[in-house]
Amino acid sequence: MTTSPDARPGYLLDQPFTERDLPALRRTVAAHADRTPLPTDRVTDLILIVSELAANAVRHGGGRGQLRMWTSADALHLEITDDGPGPPPPHPLPRQRPEPTVTGGRGLWLVDTYADAFAMQAGPAGGTVVTATLRL
Asked: Where along the chain do its domains lie?
């Protein structure tokens, strides 16, 4: 998996993905994270966050998505977009780990737990845009 040839300047990674790309996407994110000042112990958090959000984009967002990753002076940012029906109606994320008998909800709980900031909104042309930030 390589960075798309039309990646915008400033992005560490600008990568489309489908379900079959998810294992390679995790490896690609890890390799690109090594080029940032993100502490090594946070790279695992980043991979978990990307994995959960990308799987949600595939599952709920039309079978594919786009990952963009970049750094600012004090953080690593990622954005996952999809072409699905848009975000679900607003509801509070669980503050405690969902019980094993509950179906769904663990992925967004994990993202909210491990990211320093997390937001989900409707995309300008439809779909969903999810952003997550990890402080450097």
From this structure: 13-89+104-135
The CATH T-level fold of domain 13-89+104-135 is Heat Shock Protein 90 (3.30.565)
Which CA distances in Å does 88 have to 16, 74, 91? 22, 30, 8
Q: What's the pTM?
A: 0.85
- In terms of Cα–Cα distance, which of 131, 122, 94, 133 is closest to 110? 94
pLDDT tens-digit profile of 22-80? 999 999 999 999 889 999 999 999 999 999 999 999 999 999 999 999 999 999 999 99
Q: Helix 40-60 vs helix 106-114: angle between axes, to the nearest 10 degrees?
A: 150
